Input
Amino acid sequence: MSIDETIRQVLADHGRLAIPVETLADDTDLFGAGMTSHASVNVMLALEDAFDFEFTESMLKKSTFESISSIRDGVAQMTEV
Amino acid sequence: MAGQDEAREHEPWSAFRQALLNDGMLVATGVDGVYGRSSDYEAVAAAVDRLAVAAGGGQEVVSLRFPPVMPWEVFRANGYLESFPDQMGSIHTFRGDERGHAELVRRAESDEDRSDLLATTDLVLCPAVCHPLYPTQSGSLPEGGRLAEVTGWCFRHEPSRDPFRMQAFRQHDWVYLGSPEGAREHRDRWLTIGAEVLTSLGLPVEQVVANDPFFGRPGRMLAANQRMEELKYELVTPVFEEGRPTAISSSNCHLDHFGRPFAITTADGDVAHTSCFGFGIDRITLALMDRHGTDVLEWPAPIRSMLWP
Output
């Protein structure tokens, strides 16, 4: 699976979104699409499992998880180091 | 038991803790953060509680009292388990047979671990006084929402020798259920009222953005969100010689966190938002003693006449 596919799979499994993951654009506001704070925590943990890293403290904030593109940036940042 | 430890302790709160225990305001139970209270202490706490009620200005409200235990079902539904598993007070009992009982007694006598012989019940200790209220409010609210006041005991498993951090303590909450705007207004109005009450008792307060102690690394994200959205404020007062800012009241905007699971709706049929302002009855009592001393008769006359008009 590509990085984008993995992110979408994680969102489908844990995001509890009100709309189908396939309909999400890269910049769709996930919180606006029904993801709760608690769901975002589960998304965060699932991303860590899927990509085998731990987000740094400074990345544990809402904006990291607000859209597919922000998640992709976060994942890129974590897998670079 | 811990006499020597106490004497050696040099924490910011050590002198205050010693004064409370020596003067008999609090009585140690052997478990950190759990105390007996003297009648003088209770007289102050009761007076603070009366002020918390009077601050509502006699508005017509739902007024409810619950025991310090709460159904597990409420606890499960309201998300506390997701956020604060380590603070939970789960109530257990024994459901085994005679042999199991004998084993339990044997382990108790030899001070061995008993966890596997105890079974959960359908109860937990109440972690926040407003929590038992929400399931009783299911259904449609009147136009303009509803105001409620609840008081009682809370339990949070966070043992500490700092007298301000008790495991079992009282809150007096003013709760609003209704529209999102109404919830914010309630929060703002009560932060002002609360600050006036506390200032009138000689307790200077500052309003600060705060967060709840959400569990673990994911909890840091929840805490960051809570701070960013300014959902929780505390009224802090300086205590001890160093003037450590200590929360003695707080307010929380819950958004639809309680409205959704308990199917509380506005008159228009939307999911209700809720907010609460809580007077920390024990913390206010302690802050008064930190500031004015443990001899209540020696407190400044204006403070005494506020508490006992």
The mean pLDDT of chain A is 92.
